[in-house]
Design brief:
By secondary structure, this protein is of the alpha+beta class. It is built from ten helices and ten strands. Helix 4 runs parallel beside helix 8. The longest helix is centred in the C-terminal third of the chain and has 26 residues. The chain is globular. The protein starts with a helix and ends with a helix.
């Protein structure tokens, strides 16, 4: 499938970059080529082939939200996805991503402010659920399919202790507009280099529990992977912008604890599955997340519920 989609996607992104014909000296660049999406850039234009089985109506609704919230999301270049060999494709302007080599310059305040605005924005009728819990459940399924691993038991015990909504087995309690997969790779500057930070990737956008969007940095902080001052910058900026996921003051953890545990399990499940597939030991970061799952698994299950 990818062998068919990649050349078609490259041809489409060139057409989108040069709608009047002609060409330029910009090379084609493959920015991502994974099971969950292939992304190609040509000059200032980016095309993404979404995962097989993506629903046209749901993706169109999500594109519409991005177009209607240009102060929060990078707006798409086209309002309707294209069909490329059975895969839906969308087209976007290129934005400058966060530089992973300069962690001290990570835009935590911008990310938090964008989330707070998103969580307070009105949602269109018919929008499906935010897909964060479903992605966590898929990561656990992948772990189970990977076969025996010494770390799997503690990860699965931590998963079993989560409430049903966090395991995608029951509806979420809230109905806020949520990103569904927030991390620093989901921010770009547009116009490139000089513009404001904006969110990208609408695949998991939907209605649900806004605390899920804060859960990944919260989990990193709890695992010791995010310094306390960076976590404080993120949390304080979210509160200043009026974000509804946590109280405006006081302890945020009663609201964040369950989704943070769920994101920790998701991260650990992916790490263990990759480790098993590659026949290698867990690295230091992966081991830290698995160790956190062992601590989570020790929490009485009734407390998690």
């Amino acid at each position: 499938m990818t062998a068919d989609v990649l050349p078609a996607l490259t041809a489409e992104v060139r057409c989108a970059a040069h709608p009047r014909g002609g060409g330029c000296g910009h090379p084609d660049a493959v920015l991502a080529e994974r099971e969950d999406g292939t992304v190609v850039r040509h000059g200032g234009t980016v095309a993404k082939a979404h995962p097989p089985g993506t629903d046209l109506g749901e993706l169109s609704l999500r594109l519409g939200i991005a177009a209607d919230l240009p102060e929060i999301f990078l707006p798409p270049l086209r309002s309707v996805p294209a069909d490329l060999h059975g895969r839906l494709a969308t087209f976007w302007p290129y934005g400058t991503p966060v530089d992973p080599d300069t962690p001290d310059a990570a835009p935590w305040e911008a990310a938090a402010t964008l989330l707070a605005r998103l969580h307070q924005a009105p949602a269109p009728t018919g929008l499906p659920a935010m897909r964060g819990p479903a992605k966590a459940a898929r990561a656990v399924q992948r772990l189970r399919a990977a076969g025996p691993h010494p770390a799997a038991a503690s990860v699965l015990r931590a998963w079993a202790g989560l409430p049903s909504w966090a395991r995608a087995e029951a509806p979420m309690r809230s109905r806020s507009l949520c990103h569904g997969d927030l991390h620093l790779g989901q921010l770009v500057r547009h116009p490139a280099e000089t513009g404001p930070w904006l969110l990208i990737d609408v695949d998991d956008l939907g209605l649900g529990e806004p605390s899920w969007d804060l859960a990944r940095p919260a989990a990193w902080y709890a695992c010791g992977l995010l310094p306390p001052d960076e976590w404080a910058r993120f949390l304080d900026a979210y509160r200043r912008a009026g974000g509804p996921a946590v109280p405006s003051s006081g302890d945020p953890w009663p609201a964040l604890e369950v989704p943070a545990r769920a994101l920790t399990v998701q991260t650990a499940a992916r790490a263990v599955a990759k480790s098993a597939a590659a026949g290698r030991a867990l690295d230091e970061v992966e081991q830290a997340v698995v160790d956190t799952c062992a601590r989570i698994a020790a929490i009485p299950q009734q407390l998690g519920q």
